[in-house]
Amino acid sequence: MALVIISSGLYSHRGTDWRKSGVFDRLTVSQKATTYQPGADSYQIIKRLQTGVVVGMLAVLTLILFAHEWITRRPRLWRVGRIGFLTTTLFVLGWGLNGQLSVVQVVAFIHSLMNGFRWETFLIEPVVFLLWGFTALGLLFWGRGVYCRYLCPLGAAMAIPAKLKIFDWLKRRPQCGRDCRLCETKCTVGAIDPLGRINPDECVLCLRCQIIMNDAHTCTVLKRRARTGETA
Question: Where are the domains of the chain?
């Protein structure tokens, strides 16, 4: 039989002095004449297990990103792998490990820098620490979006059913990708393919392509129409 207790914050079952005493003073398990009070050792074992799971996921994602040319030549492998990884992110990283980054953690980090930085403060939650470290490195290698696309539980929860959408709100012209590829080159997240089609799985709805399409001084098609007197 296993007993699982999940709590955090000021009212956590661990109490306030468990790091010094090694005992969770707010939790006692009793069965007949036997009494057991869990300690920090069992807690650290769980944390090590969680850390191992996250490190494994990050290693797999790193391999995917560095081997993307090989993977993208196999559409079926890419499709199954993407859905599988997003599902793991949702159920394991999100619901299982509560690995969700937020702006509150950024504020806490800035506050710590201003009032005396201590590594112990951030290593209390190694899962969150690993995710922030990987996200920071991801900005250097792949730019923004790596966390949002693959490691955010909320993003995974929304990406999986996104295939059910029934409307294409972003407009395209027949000339897009054929006569002009300006939108493709200006898209900061690479959501437009060489044929001018928008990939809804990658698009973040910044509307940059729509601005270009409707700007008579930027859009190649509109400038050509202005010169020749064509109508839409």
Answer: 1-38, 46-163, 167-232
